[in-house]
Specification:
Oligomer: single chain
Number of helices: 34
Distance between the termini: 53 Å
Radius of gyration: 37 Å
Helix content: 40-55%
């Protein structure tokens, strides 16, 4: 094997100079077990130069190196570093990594569930924790030098994304921000915004995957390449779909019905039903990957039940992917990770089935899994002891679980509202897990084919490189009242104007603004093209428009009058009346056989005509009121379905001696209208009326008017986009002011007193602005999707009569959200709960009415689906009883879901306790509720 060429003297000198310039990077790199890539070096150098950094690179490329270098710099400089992540699992993982490197004394962890060494020099936390610190003016921010924001592209998340922008905008100026993002196509735009709000920021973009990714499709039992050729990873290579794959899918596609197709059944002469395609079983897929050396693998199934079923299928089949030595190691990890779980709950948790699957090297991973189970799966997979994981897309959110292969069973997922196709960004995020740096030479992405899936569609997903980052930032109640408390409304508006959302909105109208300018130039040209006085011609055109509008109004008025008169005349018709149908296919004489009167609708008389047609007529068939021309005698009972009956009635009609009346000219009200006559006289007397070039001038003016209307519409669009967040903020302030959370400056000082809550007293606002009231200061410390509703419930005392278990039940309605609609009303505990729940719901109705009036997003409706389970848990019942009762009540609630929702209830109860204090009855009940809820599986793994 040839040795790598030694560097030239110039290269050696350059490297030595760089080492001298960046001593901290040199020390940091020396501790690493691998050589840094160029993009990693660029990011680290920018940090040591004193810049902020945004690093955009594919999943698995190693961008966390730059974040870890920020930790290294903070420790070297004696300053603090906060490492933020979007999810607790990633926080836990990063905490373990940093503790292994720097020791437990230097590193802390803060999440909603866990608090370990929170005053350490390096603290890993979820992004919401840092946001809350900033609003509370926490002393832990003193000496903060660096903030690493891992998965910063999460700011596009429509539910939580605003938190990332709040942190970036509120951090002190001297703090250097390190943003780590997946590859996005507008990284430069995001970087420009960071420069604008944070100062000098270096943008480092790297689209190169360190481990090449090969794309495949599994067609039946054959694994075929998606793209043809061996140079698909070469820069600028043209990607061609594998012709063998196209032929194979077309052949099989003709033999089978598309997924979900329902053919004709049981009809004589119908084509035979096509057989349904049966894809290979999940066991077959895993075994095929094993034979091809493509394990470990993550198989993405967009369904929790599907993941659990896949694990059960593999276990039932006898599939075993681990040897005896690996089984012993797995057991040690399981016992260590699950030591806190109560032994009595293991059965209901499905512990033994889960353990058996793990020992075989098989696992599931989804949001419904118990946190301890999920963390065990993650550790075992990273250590290579689990060979296949069946997972939902939540696994793609930042957790470091790379695999050799990723399999997608479908390209459609349920987003909570509907089944939607995967986007190119989602496809890249999922398949980005394939290929472990330093372990695999290449990664593999496999899409399972089924009828209806076009390889061209898959190729489009795999080759698209446009994943723009779109801000989801918008002001909310808690954010608004915190901003007013900290900086006042005026400065708060300026802060909102600096958000990435407003930055993107303003950029989006740049093209529109240019178009407006071009239109205005064109309008000047139209004005110059008119001969004579432009304003006089414009006046003449407007006069013609008024005449046209008046004529149309009179026409509509006359039509309405005629219709009303016609309907009234039809109501007077009786059986045997002979009438004239004035026009249409049924024109001529007709006799009424049924008046067709209706108490609600207009009459629809049934008639028989001279040519024996029978059917109903309506007001639309008569342009003027109808008069009976005469009468003929008809039988008492008439069977119109009988041809003979219709023939006899038509014959009697023809022989009745009644003839059609002559045509009457319609009278128009236009000739009698004084306003219209005056307008016509003014038009004839206008100076432009007799001009030779009148029509040419009119055409220019009409163009002028059309372009003016278009320009005004564009200007309205720009006005609606510009300052849109500030206007939304003002609407929120108006609602908060009406409800007593803000007060005018002169009254706030009386109500609020001189002191504040955590530095958020009314004195912090600027003179002459709204101030935060006592109720508002409570709202500043309620961080919940239903923050204002929680504050309203506290303010109106609707929870004061509740004991701890009852309070937990009612508070759960503000955090719980059912995954899908369930039949019937959820069961509620007795006692004081129903009344408190009804009062909570009443306050929600009142709040949403105000939100509708102020044109604000509606607060989510409270959901009582978790009230009964959390009440029983707070009463001390076993997990088995709680989950069994929930199932009997028609609720789908896994152990993992139960723990997750219980911890969210605890989180809100903690906030209520802190806001009210234990001296308040609701605060005391909240404190006790937290104690009784935090036990067993709910407390396991949470410090």
């Amino acid at each position: 094997m040839a040795s790598s060429p030694s560097p030239s003297p110039a290269e050696a000198y350059s490297a030595s100079a760089r080492r001298g310039k960046y001593p901290q990077l040199t020390r940091f790199a020396a501790e690493a077990s691998f050589e840094f890539d160029r993009f990693q070096i660029r990011g680290c150098e920018a940090l040591e130069d004193g810049h902020g950094v945004l690093v955009c690179a594919p999943t698995g490329a190693g961008k966390t190196v730059v974040g870890e270098f920020a930790v290294h710099l903070a420790l070297a400089e004696g300053r603090k570093c906060f490492y933020t992540t979007p999810i607790k699992a990633l926080s836990n993982q990063k905490y373990a990594d940093l503790v292994a490197r720097y020791g437990s004394g230097a590193v802390g962890l803060l999440t909603g569930d866990t608090s370990i060494n929170g005053n350490a020099q390096v603290v890993v936390m979820t992004t919401e924790v840092l946001r809350n610190m900033l609003y509370a003016g926490s002393s832990t921010i003193i000496d903060l030098g660096y903030v690493v924001m891992d998965e910063v592209h999460y700011l596009a998340d429509r539910f939580r994304g605003a938190v990332w922008e709040e942190v970036i905008l509120h951090l002190p100026e001297h703090v250097r921000v390190v943003g780590l993002s997946a590859t996005v196509s507008n990284a430069e735009e995001f970087g420009e915004w960071l420069v604008e709000v944070r100062g000098d920021t270096t943008v480092v973009v790297d689209e190169h995957r360190p481990v090449p990714l090969w794309q495949h499709m599994l067609v039946g039992n054959r694994l075929l390449d998606l793209f043809a050729g061996d140079d698909v990873h070469a820069p600028g290579a043209e990607l061609r779909i594998n012709p063998t794959l196209l032929r194979r899918t077309e052949e099989i596609g003709r033999q089978y019905a598309p997924a979900g197709f329902r053919g004709p059944r049981g009809r004589r002469g119908a084509p035979p039903r096509m057989p349904r395609f049966r894809p290979p079983s999940r066991v077959d897929v895993v075994e095929q990957l094993d034979r091809a050396g493509l394990l470990p693998a993550i198989v993405f199934i967009f369904s929790r039940a599907g993941c659990d079923a896949a694990v059960a299928q593999c276990v039932r089949s006898g599939l075993r992917l681990n040897g005896p030595g690996e089984v012993e190691e797995i057991r040690r990890v399981i016992e260590e990770r699950t030591a806190d779980l109560p032994e009595g709950d293991l059965g209901v948790l499905g512990y033994w089935e889960w353990r058996e699957a793990l020992e075989r090297g098989i696992a599931g991973h989804h949001a419904g899994l118990l946190p301890a189970f999920k963390e065990t799966v993650e550790e075992l997979f990273v250590r290579g002891l689990v060979k296949v994981v069946f997972a939902t897309e939540t696994l793609a959110l930042g957790i470091n679980m790379p695999a050799r292969t990723v399999v997608l069973e479908r390209l459609v997922k349920y987003n909570g509202e509907a089944h939607v196709d995967l986007t190119p960004g989602e496809y890249t995020q999922l398949t980005g897990r394939a290929g472990r740096r330093g372990i695999d030479v290449e990664g593999h992405a496999v899409v399972a084919w089924q009828p209806g899936v076009d390889p061209k569609q898959v190729a489009g997903l795999a080759s698209t490189r446009t994943y723009p980052l779109r801000s989801s930032f918008r002001p909310g109640y808690n954010m608004a009242v915190n901003l007013v408390a900290q900086v006042g409304a005026t400065e708060a508006r300026e802060l909102l104007e600096q958000s990435f959302a407003q930055f993107q909105a303003d950029r989006s109208v740049v093209g529109t603004a240019r178009r407006i300018e071009r239109n205005k130039e064109a309008l000047k040209g139209y004005t110059a093209a008119v001969t004579g006085d432009f304003d006089e011609v414009l006046e003449y055109v407007e006069l013609r428009a008024k005449i046209s509008a008046r004529e149309k109004a009179l026409s509509r008025q006359n039509t309405a009058v005629r219709r009303a008169g016609t309907a009234e005349s039809l109501e007077k018709l009786r059986k045997g009346d002979v009438i004239a149908v004035p026009a249409g296919r049924r024109a001529g004489l007709a006799v009424v056989v049924d008046p067709g009167l209706d108490p609600i609708r207009e009459p629809r008389p049934v008639v028989v005509t001279e040519d024996r047609w029978s059917g109903p007529l309506s007001v639309a068939d008569f342009p003027a009121p109808v008069e009976a021309l005469g009468r003929i005698k008809l039988p008492k009972h008439i069977e119109l379905r009988s041809p003979r009956t219709r023939r006899d009635i038509a014959s009697a009609l023809r022989n009745a001696g009644i003839s059609l009346p002559g045509r009457q000219a319609r009278r128009s009200g236009a000739n009698e209208d004084g306003e219209l006559a005056a307008l016509r006289r003014a038009l004839r007397a206008h100076p432009c009326h007799g001009l030779a070039e009148r029509e040419a001038n009119l055409r220019w003016v009409e163009r002028y008017q059309r372009l003016t209307a278009e320009t005004q519409q564009l200007e309205r669009k720009v006005a609606a986009t510009t300052h849109s967040l500030a206007r939304a903020f003002d609407r929120i302030l108006a609602l908060l002011g009406e409800r007593g959370y803000l007060a005018a400056a002169q009254s706030a000082s009386v109500e609020g007193g001189g002191g504040g809550m955590d530095g958020l007293g009314p004195e912090s606002a600027g003179d002459g602005e709204d101030r935060v009231t006592e109720h508002g200061r409570r709202l500043t410390r309620l961080y919940s999707e239903s923050d204002l509703l929680a504050a309203e419930c506290i303010r109106h005392g609707v929870w004061r009569k509740l004991n701890p278990a009852e309070l937990a039940a009612v508070v759960s309605t503000l955090v719980f959200e059912a995954r899908r609609d369930t039949a019937g009303e959820p069961r509620l505990p007795g006692g004081a709960v129903p009344e408190a729940w009804q009062e909570t719901a009443r306050l929600w109705v009142e709040l949403t009415e105000d939100e509708r009036r102020h044109r604000l997003d509606r607060t989510r409706e409270p959901d009582a689906g978790f009230a009964w389970p959390v009440y029983r848990w707070a009463r001390g019942e076993s997990l088995e009883k709680v989950l069994t009762a929930a199932e009997a009540n028609g609720q789908e609630l896994s152990a993992g879901d139960f723990v997750r929702w219980s911890r969210q209830v605890i989180d809100l109860l903690d906030q209520i306790r802190d806001v009210l204090g234990k001296a308040d009855p609701v605060g005391a009940a909240a404190a006790e509720a937290v104690k009784v809820l935090r036990r067993g599986v709910v407390a396991a793994g949470a410090a």
